[in-house]
Amino acid sequence: MYQRLLAALALLALPGVSFAQKKEYVQLQRDIATLQDQMRTLQRTFDEKMTALTVLVQQTLDSANGANKALAVMEARVNDRLAEQEKKLTLPTASVGERVDRMSTEFQQVRENLSDVLSRLGKLEQRMVDLSNEFRTLGQPAPPPPGSGPAAFGGAPPLSAEQLYENARRDTMGGKSDLALQQFAEYLRYYGNTENAPNAQYWIGQIYYDKGDFEAALKNFDLLLDNYPDSRKAPDALYMKGQSLLKLNRRADAARSFRELYSSYPKHELAAKGCSELKRMGYASCGVAAPKRRD
Predict the structure, then answer these.
(1) Whole-structure pTM over 0.70, yes or no?
(2) Statement: residue 59 has pLDDT above 60
């Protein structure tokens, strides 16, 4: 298009330009004006759609925030009710205790999923802003797509740490436990020193526990305690280790695990649950120093 415009200007600069050539130049000017009108229309349409999308994303964010607040209120009410029931019941059955533990775990999973949704919505909003800026600067070269560098080939991990962990979590919540186990194991293989590595190790143990493979669950909770002893998931691993040992009818070892939880993390919310488990098992005291782990 620019070559045609330059050619037309050159022809006008020459003396004795024919009438046909001038007519072609006039037609070229009309084409340019039409193209400019189309570009303005396209820009206006794009701006309107981007505004609508921004409003929609903001509404979605508001709804997600409202759901998160409602969930927090509901969780507080459930905790209050559970506290009242615990005061009324002197010897709650083991099945009730397991249901309460599962409910607490499910609440935590829902909260984490809502946080993931909010994070993804924020990224979507940022991406739309970037897309709008790219449209306004059509003359600038686009950045290379992610994953196209040297790290995407050879022996490098197939996905980024964040994407691999999110895929594993999503498959866990979706009931695809075998696929989630494979992805969590792959995460530990490539990103064993990252912040989410203890969480990945914990989820492997939790999945095996939910599948009824208590030996495998016990092994993976011990791996978390050995490889990440100072992580925030260590109390959870101690508690679930005790639960796994109970399922395996190793009551003395389970009592040691609950006592270690109580003595090492006395202010953690799971310490009270571990103490309750000890009382169910017939132990009068929770504040006994736990012996060294031998299993």
Answers:
(1) no
(2) yes
